[in-house]
From TrEMBL:
Entry's family note: Belongs to the ArsC family.
Enzyme Commission designation: 1.20.4.1
Species in which this protein is naturally found: Chitinimonas taiwanensis DSM 18899
CDD domains associated with the record: ArsC_ArsC
GO biological process terms, semicolon-separated: response to arsenic-containing substance
PANTHER family in the record: ARSENATE REDUCTASE, ARSENATE REDUCTASE-RELATED
Enzyme class at the top of the EC tree: oxidoreductase
Name of the featured protein: Arsenate reductase
Keywords: Arsenical resistance, Oxidoreductase
Any one GO molecular function term: arsenate reductase (glutaredoxin) activity
Substrates-to-products reaction catalysed: [glutaredoxin]-dithiol + arsenate + glutathione + H(+) = glutathionyl-S-S-[glutaredoxin] + arsenite + H2O
Amino acid sequence: MSDITIYHNPACGTSRNTLALIRNSGAEPRVVLYLQTPPSRDELLGLIAATGQPVRALIRAKAEPYAELGLDDPQWTDDQLVDFMLAHPILINRPIVVTPLGTRLCRPSELVLDILPQPQQGAFNKEDGEPVVDAQGRRVSVR
């Protein structure tokens, strides 16, 4: 079993790029398709805490139910926002990656490079062609 976990949505380009960067380091992560198998409340709270980010940073504002539910309203408490995320897993921003070096929301995808235990093993370009890692495994693009 891998010591790397990615909470992944295969329909998301950022998530696909992040998964490919993990694999480019030689690791095969545990892939959690969180839309099919959502985390429990305790798991989600643990992920949020481990990122060091506020709850709102882990909510996907572009997801359809966000505006419909009025989640930009500051009236919602963190507990209520977590309840919405559990009821509508599409609201969980992705990809979230857990490694022995930390937990991070990897937006943009190259943020995963900061928490991978092993270096990149070759060149990597994002799906859109943007270079991220050169042939020697060195980062070439930082946003």
